[in-house]
Amino acid sequence: MRKQTDVLVLGGAGVDTIVHVPELPLPFADSYMIRPGIETRAGQSGDFVALGLHTLGLRTHHLDMIGDDHEGDLVRALHRDRGIPLTEAPLRGGTRRAVNLVGPDGRRLSLYDAARSDDSDRFDESTVRELAAVTRHAHVVITQPCAFTLPVLREAGVTISTDLHNWDGVDSYHEAFAVQADVVFLSTTALTDTERTMRDIAGRGRARTVVATAGAEGSYLLHDGELTHTPAVTPPAPVVDSNGAGDAFASGFLLGLLAGEHPRRCVLYGTVAGAHACTVPSTRTDAIGREELLATVAELETGCAAEGDLPAAGPA
């Protein structure tokens, strides 16, 4: 039976308030004059992954808990305006929100409001089962209460990916996601030994594929025990904000994965999508399109072939 949805994204819906600061870390001062201003817009990790996948032409559905508030209306409007199906459950604490401090070089510092979620928050299991039954793949964001959906998704037979973001390799909250996903993304930001953490994830869990992104240093791929490095690519425009780059990387990678590409080529897809995201101002929610991504990848592969370093292609 042909599935109705390519990717079900669970969790990560919310609103960010963007504050441009003169530098990071921000020195203490009584006040700052902020230009180009302070703006609140919908878009957190799950929203960005769903938007990225949808823009790349994948049939995407987003499930999350959202508050009955103005911020929730912004999230609903984002999905409605972009044509991304959204199934929502009520979040009693209010829609998740964060403040992002963005420096002139595009680096950002996120301040997450941890008071919005409660340990008792749960998705309706029957809803998760119904959505999983018609989807090919599930991308699970590490927000509460997504960990409880992992066994249900596994029973439904869908493959699972997750992004541990800036996990330090120790914090126990992330472990349920790390060991139950087939594909694991994470950042090297807080890791003291990237390869050891990647191999630990693969050794203790289900993942055949672990990807660690390292910003301007590129990314590392562990697939079937082999570790490879992919350098970063030059962004198509000046870097203005790194917010959402990891989500864009995951979206690009999943496009390749669901097309049957080898993970090394999927990493190239993700690298191009992530570089594009760094050129998008933090107040906007734009994502790279399928044609642009594929054309850029083809150009890069032509260059790699000329240098004798073409990434392996074909089914994983």
Automatic annotation (TrEMBL):
Keywords: Kinase, Transferase. It holds the Pfam family PfkB. It comes from the Bacteria. InterPro entries: Carboh/pur_kinase_PfkB_CS, PfkB_dom, Ribokinase-like. Residues 34-285 form the Carbohydrate kinase PfkB domain. GO terms for molecular function: kinase activity. CDD domains: adenosine_kinase. Gene3D superfamilies: 3.40.1190.20. PANTHER family: RIBOKINASE, SUGAR KINASE. This is Adenosine kinase. The lineage of its organism: Bacteria, Bacillati, Actinomycetota, Actinomycetes, Kitasatosporales.
